[in-house]
Design goal:
- The chain has a 7-stranded parallel sheet, sandwiched between helices.
- By secondary structure, the chain is an alpha/beta fold.
- The longest helix has 28 residues.
- The protein is 41% helix and 17% strand.
- It contains 6 helices and 7 strands.
């Protein structure tokens, strides 16, 4: 059975994706910041008969990623697919954004993804290759006032995905980007996000999870380089 490593698994798109992948027959390596929710999810997923291994850490901590991923791979083996779903958002004008807020956005949405890839891709390459899926946003391509830091972090993630794909195409590593419009997830409940969008018009987390599973189920002879999924209402 194939194995997927999914980050940001303790809530939202990550949790929904874990359920979708397990139901489709995937074993899972799951990570998240909330250790209690992550453990509860892992226990419930084991009821599907799949092998589930979890490790709690924060992508904002640059010293935590390598030890946590090493421990996870030691227990669960090398994944066939990595879903870099974990991320965060913060709103505010660029000219008054605190440097700490800017740094955290870049740290989690970009640098943490790079470090996670550094931690797991060597094992995948030794195993013959695999798939990396990076979850991006429509904000990577469209400037939204008040969302500048988030837009920049996701635009940089898009270029990271393209560069990673070209550097490791010969190693059997395929890289996909899932570009999402607004998704009704806990992101909107964050104290760092000020927005009054109609959440009823947004995509559901299950729709985003289904798109991730679709990307992961592509045969190794092909890759969907970028899949864009938007609410029918368009950009909110």
């Amino acid at each position: 059975m194939p194995t997927a490593l999914i980050t940001g698994a303790s809530s939202g798109i990550g949790s929904a994706s874990c359920k979708a992948f397990a139901q489709a027959g995937w074993d899972l390596l799951i990570t998240g910041r909330n250790a209690e929710r992550l453990a509860g999810l892992a226990e419930s997923l084991r009821g599907t008969g799949r092998r589930i291994h979890s490790e709690s850490f924060d992508l904002a901590d640059p010293t935590a990623i390598f030890p946590a991923i090493t421990a996870l791979l030691d227990r669960g083996g090398t994944p066939d697919a990595v879903v870099n779903n974990a991320g965060l958002a913060a709103t505010g004008p660029l000219l008054t954004m605190a440097p700490e807020t800017w740094d955290t956005l870049i740290r989690v949405n970009l640098t943490g993804v790079m470090q996670l890839c550094q931690a797991v891709l060597p094992a995948m390459i030794r195993a013959g290759g695999g798939l990396v899926i990076n979850v991006s946003s429509h904000a990577a391509r469209t400037a939204f006032p008040g969302w500048g830091g988030y837009c920049v972090s996701k635009a940089a993630l898009d270029m990271f995905s393209r560069c990673l794909r070209e550097e490791h195409r010969g190693d059997g590593i395929r890289v996909s980007t899932l570009t999402l419009g607004a998704v009704d997830s806990p992101l909107w409940d964050s104290d760092n996000v000020a927005a009054d969008f109609d959440r009823g018009s947004m995509l559901g987390v299950d729709q985003a999870a289904a798109a991730l599973l679709h990307l992961a189920q592509q045969p190794s002879s092909q890759v969907i380089e970028d899949l864009t999924l938007m609410p029918a209402a368009g950009a909110l």
